[in-house]
Amino acid sequence: MTDLPLEELRAAVGAEHVLVDADLTASYETDWTGRFTGRAGCVVRPRDTEQVAAVLRACDRAGVPVVVQGGNTGLVGGGVPAGGEVLLSLTRLDELGEIDVAAGQVTAGAGVTLAALQAHARAAGLDFGVDLAARDSATLGGLVATNAGGIRVLRYGSMRAQLLGAEAVLADGSVVSRMAGLLKDGTGYDLVSLLAGSEGTLGVVTRVRLRLVPRATARCVALLALESTQAAVDLLPGLRERLPSLSGAELVYADGIALVRKHSGLPAPFEQDFPAYLLLECADRTDPTDALVEAVGEADGLLDARIASDPAGRRALWAYREQHTEAISAEGVPVKLDVSVPLRALPGLVDRLGPAIAAVAPTARSVVFGHVNEGNLHVNVLGAGDLGEDVTEAVLRLVAELSGSISSEHGVGRAKAAWLSLSRSPTEIAAMRAIKTALDPRGTLNPGVLLLAR
Ligand code: MLT
Ligand code: ZN
């Protein structure tokens, strides 16, 4: 690989923000799950858009690839080095602008964490439409880059739907800035929207202009015990219709709850175990409890239910869902496959997953859970050993057969780049490559992520 332009990088961001010692770079080089790891040539920590531009100019000129990283909560190997790249860490771009109450918008740096943005918006009587369990570490730049979804997509859509503007540095160091937050803008290609889900391959997002939503001041959570995935899917149309305040619908299963209990010590949610559980949250400015109790009372196929409106009770019910990720990782390094299928195909996918995985990795164990309204299932496979790629292939092929997507909300990363053609046609992939080449002709940004390196 070409020599690193270390002197230029030091001049760009200050010598103390160019890390080369292994003990200083280590925490940037392995992903959260421990599955993806590689040595960075160095880690560079710019403070603002101008410094990011100087770093990219230097790397692009020197022919050195750059990997972009936010809070390092990614799950598809898209933000850690493959080997030798400059790792561009954006956590210092953490400036939060004043809330624009008139517009219901805010400007924030790419390195601001989701939790910090939420607290900022709530202090002004507003809220942010995206929420997810990694909120304390996940940063806005990464959430945009992966078009993250999470637990409120049902109500507010995913990250792209919140994104009204962005500032981004292209591979050659030039800056695109569309930060006015216009709600109507018909002037051609929407580059801001294109950045959402581009996984750092087209430009480095440094600042974003975000839509805020009214702050719900009352919440109610229900945990419903059900016979099957089909029972959960069957309930959704009625729940959506009866409960305009419905903001989340999450699906978990008996084995996932048992695993969470094993690692957290939480008590059993009900006196007996049930096959499937649907966790619902309603959020509003007036108390949604009566409406949720009534809707639950009339729900077909209910085996048992718990409802909580007080903060501690709500947190206790959410814990069974939100602690899945940590409980799974406590068992070993999982192969994490995040997929979505049309809702009507979800029960079939769940039924066929076990046999499909067992056919290629008989001793592997899978734990699944998901965001049911979007047909989004998180398939976590433990004990796959050397068969991780075979498991990935089997699951993603099954998903494609059901007209699904091989990446619902985590991105494609390095983990699934080889399977992109299962979800995208040759024409679409050619168009994506043409865009990539136009914006990053030397292939500097995140090579091997999303699109396989050629
Ligand atoms: C979640 O829904 O909790 C996240 O997508 C993380 C995960 O899939 O483990
Ligand atoms: Zn998720």
Could you characterize the architecture of this molecule?
α1 (6-13) runs antiparallel to α3 and α10 packs across α13 (324-331). The protein is globular and about 65 Å long. β7 (163-169) and β8 (175-178) form a beta hairpin. It has four domains: 6-92, Uridine Diphospho-n-acetylenolpyruvylglucosamine Reductase, domain 2, CATH 3.30.43.10; 105-214, Uridine Diphospho-n-acetylenolpyruvylglucosamine Reductase, domain 3 (2-Layer Sandwich); 218-324, Alpha-Beta Plaits, CATH 3.30.70.2190; 332-427, 2-Layer Sandwich (Alpha-Beta Plaits), CATH 3.30.70.2740. 34% of the residues lie in helices and 20% in strands. The chain has 16 helices and 17 strands. Bound molecules: D-malate and zinc ion (ZN). Residues 371, 378, 409 line the site of zinc ion (ZN). D-malate binds at residues 132-133, 325, 338, 378.
Attribute tags:
about 35% helix, alpha+beta, 16 helices, about 450 residues, Uridine Diphospho-n-acetylenolpyruvylglucosamine Reductase, domain 2, binds D-malate, binds zinc ion, Uridine Diphospho-n-acetylenolpyruvylglucosamine Reductase, domain 3, Alpha-Beta Plaits, 4 domains, globular, four-stranded mixed β-sheet, seven-stranded antiparallel β-sheet
Topology, pairings included?
Layout: H1 6-13, E1 18-19, H2 22-29, E2 42-44, H3 49-62, E3 66-69, E4 86-89, E5 105-109, H4 114-123, E6 126-127, H5 140-145, H6 153-156, H7 159-162, E7 163-169, E8 175-178, H8 191-195, E9 204-211, E10 213-214, E11 218-226, H9 229-242, E12 246-253, H10 254-264, E13 276-284, H11 289-297, E14 304-308, H12 311-322, H13 324-331, E15 335-340, H14 346-360, E16 365-371, E17 376-382, H15 388-401, H16 426-439
Parallel strand pairs: 2-4, 3-4
Antiparallel strand pairs: 1-2, 5-9, 6-10, 7-8, 7-9, 11-13, 11-14, 12-13, 12-16, 15-17, 16-17
Helix pairs in contact: 1-3, 10-13, 14-15
